[in-house]
Amino acid sequence: MSNSLPPNDRIHTEEHHVTGDRLLSRVKELVRQGNIRRVIIKNEQGHTLLVVPLTMGVVGAVLIPVWVAIGALAALAANYQVVVEKVEPGA
Prior knowledge:
By secondary structure, this protein is α+β, with helices and mostly antiparallel strands. It is built from 2 helices and 4 strands.
């Protein structure tokens, strides 16, 4: 995946706080919304646990190992911060 964006596109960051039992479903929901460049999962102390780079068109079986990893993280702690980098197309 290239780090360069089209000239008018911008990266927007959103933060979502979720409990461990909602972690996997929330990340799946965010990925389905589209335009996501990267998902970062952090623990309660703000330490990065998992970074998932995404590209346009990544769906289905390609993400199965990611879902398994996120499911394993969900079992370890009570609260997480999900940071989502979204691409906002320019004018």
